[in-house]
Write a structure and sequence with these properties.
The complex is a heterodimer.
Chain A (H helix, E strand, L loop, with lengths): L7 H23 L13 H23 L2 H6 L2 H10 L1 H22 L4 E5 L2 E5 L1 H17 L4 H22 L9
Antiparallel strand pairs in A: 1-2
Helix pairs in contact in A: 1-2, 5-6, 6-7
Chain B lengths: L2 H13 L2 H19 L5 H8 L8 H26 L8 H12 L3 H34 L4 H19 L4 H15 L2 E2 L6 E2 L13 H17 L19 H6 L1 H16 L4 H16 L2 H6 L5 H24 L6 H12 L8 H4 L3 H31 L3 H20 L3 H18 L5 H23 L5 H7 L1 H30 L1
The chains are: A mainly alpha, B mainly alpha.
């Protein structure tokens, strides 16, 4: 994945967050227990990494200020945020993120696994398969924009091929409700 | 029995038994397909497929595992080139170059170059080892704690510089974030919990596989799917195999990358990820001015450098595994486990206790290499057709793979949450212009760097700094290289970019 381009204001915001993170890492490293010599202290490398991250975030922040981050801030950060929020791509992105979070949580918490009797055998269908089919069909409907039937068929085929390969090919259990 | 007689005997064992070829072919095919699934690594493929060897004979089990190893090492390039999600971490450089080519309608040729380079890399690794086993082993064993720490640091620094060309600072920051993530868990020397916030889920540390799947798989879905009409790669496959002229043109780069891959493979713990990034960086520095301009935008030579190195790494990693019983990489550890499952003890006495086994394994690698080449070529066209489907159809289908892949690491749903968090962080970092590859590499190399630095400092406790610099010459050379990498990133890179722009 190639990186996106960041504005000076975004770089400044990144620098502030990174500096806070680095400071937290330094603070937590210093509070770690030192059971033996300082050279083998568990917090040694985290401290060095935290300190150098702090220095790098300051360099990033300074670069952003030099590139005109403050000018951008004065020009109206509210307008930039509003433009960001009304962008249809951002709205679709937010919806997708919500759907993915819901998908992950539903697999974890929705007890919908079933056991079907098929020709004298009990066929387990896990919560993972059921939730995956429903969520993938919904995501396909929104973004692929095909008919509901096609989306459902593609979702069933995709999820079941994967689940069967993992379950019977690699003898792996499926994620279930915990 | 002499060496040649042993080689002949083992060659005949393999050539005359079609079941061994079949076991290897199944292993290669499963390995390629597994490696092609986004985020599912070679190590994971070998660990999960290890169970299938239980019912096999000793010889078939070895052939099968070598097939999986060879196949999955290449397979990572398929999804990297076609959908911009690396199947394995070492395929990240191939992803950067190959996907750019795929978007220009050269997916077939990009994959063909990767296949030929992988084939060549395997050969170079095997031949170099057979010819220089004592020399390679001697050199690899010079890498002690201090050198291993510097090697890890160099890997992250180079990856940061390479993936964030105009702003290496951002690449290094991403690497440093990865290092902080890698420190989570019980520290390896004293068992003190670090950054675990009291959660026992974090005591074992953060596995790099959910992080990789999140950063590259989920973040790519979040980036591509919301677009109004995301561009798919062209479905025309075009020419697949590179011309002989092109192969000859890249022969020097291949040989150089093969040597790098073999030596790094022979260093216990370094692995294919380090090899492919080193080779990629050194390749850019050695490339001609015209070729260097293409680096990062779709260079065939860059693919050759990365793929030759990570495949030469296979042969390299087998050397300490077989000769010392120390796995050269995590995937080689799975081969070791397969051998132990069949009551084969490897180590310095391998030639006495299992005469001919080393040659059997090297001949097996050669067979696996040929089969990988044939299977990969056969799979290119269907793969390009499959991955040229609309991304709005493909990307949602990758989501269940991401969840299953993250879950499969420890059969623990916590890893799925970790994958989700990594995906969101990866998407935000992408939007803010930070490269993601250094972060993944740092999560992998962080524990190696941490443990080795502290061990080295313990060893150096009563020694002065100057004595360390003088006594550990290899370490001093590595230290200078690390410092030069940072210097070059801060000052030299601007000159290079300015020169490229002027050109």
């Amino acid at each position: 994945m190639q990186t996106g381009a960041a504005t000076p204001l975004q770089d400044l915001a990144s620098a502030v967050v990174l500096a806070a993170l680095a400071a937290a890492a330094i603070f937590m490293s210093l509070r770690l227990e030192v059971p033996d010599a300082l050279s083998t202290a568990p917090g040694l490398l985290p401290l060095v990494v935290g300190a150098s991250l702090l220095a790098m975030s300051m360099a990033l922040g300074l670069g952003a200020l030099r590139a005109g981050a403050l000018r951008e801030l004065n020009a109206g950060v509210g307008r930039s945020v509003a433009a960001f929020m009304t962008n249809p791509e951002q709205r679709r992105g937010a919806l997708l993120l919500a759907l993915i979070i819901a998908y992950v949580l539903l697999v974890a918490y929705l007890p919908v696994g079933v056991q079907l009797p098929v020709a004298g055998f009990a066929l387990d269908i896990s919560a993972y398969e059921i939730v995956s089919v429903v969520m993938i069909a919904a995501i396909l409907k929104i973004y692929w924009r095909a008919s509901m039937l096609r989306c459902a068929l593609v979702a069933v085929a995709g999820v079941e091929i994967l689940a069967l390969a993992f379950r019977f090919g690699f003898h792996m259990i499926m994620p279930e409700t915990y | 029995m002499g060496i040649w007689a042993q080689i002949y005997e083992q060659l005949m064992v393999i050539v005359l038994d079609p079941w061994l070829w079949a076991a290897c072919l199944v292993g290669v095919t499963l390995g390629i397909l597994w490696g092609a699934l986004p985020g599912l690594s070679t190590t994971m493929a070998m660990t999960l497929l290890l169970g299938l060897t239980i019912g096999m004979s000793q010889q078939a089990a070895i052939m099968f595992m070598l097939g999986v190893y060879t196949g999955s090492s290449f397979g990572g390039a398929i999804s990297a080139v076609l959908i911009n999600i690396p199947g394995t971490p070492d395929a990240v450089p191939t992803m950067i170059e190959g996907h750019a080519l795929a978007q220009r309608g050269e997916a077939g040729l990009a994959l063909g170059t990767a296949i030929s380079a992988s084939f060549l890399g395997n050969w170079i690794g095997i031949l170099l080892l057979i010819a220089f086993i004592p020399a390679v082993l001697f050199f690899a064993l010079q890498f002690r704690s201090w050198e291993m720490f510097l090697l890890s640091l160099w890997g992250i620094a180079i990856c940061g510089s390479m993936t964030s060309r105009e702003r290496p600072l951002k690449g290094w920051i991403a690497g440093w974030l990865g290092l902080l993530v890698s420190f989570v868990g019980l520290d390896p020397i004293h068992g003190v919990p670090r950054f675990t916030f009291g959660s026992y889920y974090l005591d074992d540390g953060i596995s790099f596989i959910p992080v990789l799947i999140g950063l590259f798989g989920l973040a790519e879905i979040l980036r591509v799917l919301p677009q109004e009409s995301p561009a798919s790669i062209p479905s025309e496959v075009g020419r697949v195999l590179p011309s002989l002229r092109r192969i000859v043109k890249y022969s020097r780069a291949s040989l150089r990358s093969g040597i790098i891959g073999t030596i790094i493979g022979a260093i216990p713990g370094a692995g294919a990820n380090v090899a492919s990034f080193f080779s990629y960086d050194i390749g850019r520095r050695r490339a001609g001015a015209e070729e260097r301009k293409l680096w990062g935008k779709g260079s065939h030579e860059a693919i050759v450098c990365a793929e030759v190195a990570n495949n030469a790494n296979i042969g390299g990693s087998m050397l300490p595994t077989l000769a010392l019983g120390i796995p050269g990489s995590a995937a080689a550890a799975a081969v070791l486990a397969a051998l132990e499952l069949k009551n084969i003890v490897v180590g310095p006495l391998i030639q006495t206790e299992n005469p001919g086994l080393i040659y059997y394994i090297y001949i097996g690698l050669i067979v696996a290499n040929f089969l990988m080449y044939a299977m990969a070529i056969a799979l290119i066209k269907p793969c390009v057709k499959l991955f040229s489907l609309p991304k709005t159809l493909l990307m949602p289908l990758i989501l269940p793979i991401c969840i299953l892949g993250a879950f499969a690491v420890n059969l623990n749903y916590f890893d799925v949450y970790l994958m989700l968090a990594s995906g969101i962080v990866g998407y935000v970092l992408y939007r803010l212009g930070f490269p993601l590859a250094p972060m993944v590499l740092a999560v992998i190399l962080g524990p190696l760097a941490d443990e080795n630095l502290r061990r080295a400092l313990l060893v150096f406790e009563d020694t002065g700094v100057l004595a360390v610099l003088w006594d550990r010459k290899l370490g001093t050379v590595l230290l200078l290289i690390v410092l030069y990498t940072f210097y070059d990133g801060l000052f030299g890179r601007h000159r290079l970019m300015a020169a490229e722009r002027d050109g």
